[in-house]
Specification:
Number of strands: 5
CATH architecture: 2-Layer Sandwich
Order of helices and strands: HEEHHHEEE
Number of domains: 1
Shape: globular
Number of helices: 4
Mean pLDDT: 89
CATH superfamily: PAS domain
Largest sheet: 5 strands, antiparallel
CATH topology: Beta-Lactamase
Radius of gyration: 15 Å
Strand content: 25-35%
């Protein structure tokens, strides 16, 4: 792994490991290079078990296909993609969660984009669904 990226990940880990925001660092193929405790919990596992695996190992392909397209857009353009709002229905429980995600390019030693940092916040408990209007 690129040394500059490793240093960035070490700093992120120190700052974000206990944060309630889910954080993952992934490559273009959806491989998880690093995640914080909350990110691993979202997949029902620990960081050590999640790191080095692929997002398809933890989440439904219907979700990961879209995530991969967004990740690749960030990686190729070198620009962040922010305030992505999604509703995700848990495949086992059927529970619907609303999440807001930001995707940020991470640069290597030579200034090229080498990974995407993904920050995802569950908004469900902060949304009054009874007050929202949905299309018919």
């Amino acid at each position: 792994m690129d040394e500059s990226l490793r240093e960035q990940l070490d700093l992120l880990k120190a700052l974000l490991d206990e944060c309630p925001t889910c954080v993952w660092v992934k490559d273009e193929g959806g491989n998880i290079l690093w995640c914080n405790q909350s990110g691993a919990r979202a997949g029902g596992t620990t960081p050590s078990q999640m790191e080095g695996t692929n997002q398809d190992d933890w989440w439904p392909s219907a979700w990961t296909r879209k995530w991969t397209l967004d990740d690749r857009e960030v990686l190729r353009a070198g620009r962040a993609k922010r305030n992505i709002i999604e509703t995700l229905r848990h495949p086992k429980t059927g529970q619907v969660r609303w999440v807001r995600t930001d995707k940020i390019p991470m640069l290597g030693d030579d200034g090229t984009v080498v990974a995407v940092a993904v920050y995802s916040v569950d908004l469900t408990d902060h949304i009054d669904l009874d007050q929202m209007e949905f299309p018919a």
